[in-house]
Write a structure and sequence with these properties.
Blueprint (H helix, E strand, L loop, with lengths): L1 E9 L4 H12 L6 E12 L6 E10 L2 H6 L5 E3 L20 E3 L3 H12 L5 E4 L4 H14 L33 H11 L16 H17 L3 E4 L1 E9 L2 E9 L6 E4 L3 E3 L6 H10 L3 E3 L2 E10 H9 L15 E3 L5 E8 L3 E4 L9 E4 L8 E10 L1 H4 L6 H16 L4 E5 H6 L13 E2 L2 E3 L8 H14 L12 E6 L6 E3 L12 E3 L10 H18 L6
Parallel strand pairs: 5-6, 5-11, 6-7, 11-24, 16-20, 19-21
Antiparallel strand pairs: 1-3, 1-4, 2-3, 8-9, 9-10, 12-23, 13-18, 13-22, 14-15, 15-18, 16-17, 19-22
Length: 534
Amino acid sequence: MLRIQQLKMKIPHTEQELREKILKTLRIRPDDLIRYEIVRQSLDARGDELKYVYIIDAEVKKEAAILKKHPKQVTKAQRVRYQFPKPGTERLAHRPVIIGTGPAGLFCGLALARAGYAPILLERGQDVESRARTVETFWKLGVLDPWSNVQFGEGGAGTFSDGKLNTLVKDTSGRNRKVLEIFVEAGAPEEILYVQKPHLGTDLLRDIVTYIRKEIVSLGGEVHFGTQAAGLDLEDGRVKGIQIRRRDMEKEEYLEAEQVVLAIGHSARDTFQMLHDLGVPMEAKSFAVGVRMEHPQELVNRSRYGEHYPDCLPAASYKVTRKTQSGRGVYSFCMCPGGYVVNASSEPECLAVNGMSYHARDGRNANSAMIVTVTPNDFGEEGVLAGVEFQRRLESAAFRAGKGKIPVQLFGDFCASQASSALGEVEPCMKGNYLLSNVREIFPAELSAALEEGIRGCGSLIRGFDRPDAVLSGVESRTSSPVRILRGENMESIIKGIYPCGEGAGYAGGITSAAMDGLKIAEAIAKRYAPWYD
């Protein structure tokens, strides 16, 4: 295979035009091109003319001869193929147990199931179909189900998100590509394999996680919903079993297990407490908090594409960052083109928000989190779980500010520190009821000032970004886990048999990186143990 770099095409263009450009670049006849594959498609919005820039892998006749006569733009393609390790030889006394069915848990479970390990997955929330109904009821009526909500349930928090699949994790093992291939196998469009910033949307994600769960079960695995890991049985520095609390039963049950994967998600605060009480090594880590900010999607499109852009282009995204005079960084996070702000609460009398898009990204507003990093210096050094309590304080203040609804404030009023009394031209796109209030008062003064200064500064990056009627809502507090559950090079905790995994354990930052970490943990178990079905 030959790789063509920096192949530029006008927007729009046809598949035939792309093929002809490939032939011209390689200087070959049509019969000499056996097949080609798009490796990457990115948008170049610099200058007056929008262009797609491609990386293409092409299989051709007389490859060596073509390489000799071509410039640096054409090279030999180098691809890394993912390989699951050969199984170990130690016998399993019991099947591996995975706590959590977010991306980390599901991909760990799928990899182990395909290799014959018949894992057991425990999930406190509901299956995705039931969960979607529960969440819709919460958004309409405001009645929270602490067991199953935007944070807990099949697919994890990412199920109700934009479904972004890009990651900054450096991957030399092929795990990234493998994750995307599994998504395509499960029903995702093939374009996620090559577009620069792939996404699925909440609607596609729901079908995909169902597919993965059904395959795990078909291969001998089990998935138990409404089932919470209430405790771990530890003896002589290793795990022996799990105390299980089922939603529909008063008595706890006991499940013997010597390999337990903690794919618990970033909002499993009661599980963090349980692990801390048991002495599982963990540490506080920095995270970020802030607000969701909404603008008209058309404002973002024109800023990114220009005034007269082709209709074929997708809803535009952005990434902005500013440094305040005090040295704090304020930046956009989890930007949702054509999306919605959602009530993402998971605890009574606490309120958190997140962003969500459907695959079409056809909502009238763009939204993103505008956040500022906080460290133990901000939330206190009273212990490993100080960050959890800091999140709770903000979410409790948000609940009070909105009287149980999403608190909303115009940016101009945020700067004036006064509750908003009316909307401007920007009408919120939200899942969940909202109330005009004073979002600024949710935060400590230092963080509010940093958010104001950072957002004002972003007005020089995107014209109209700091418009007075841009809509702010709060609080965005679940950007990442406030703790890291420590593990060694063998992926285990110092307590043998415990495998911290994914975003909640502090080793990932999104759907793809969490899924990759799930594969990594499955590999670690497989390298040591023989399959259950051997």
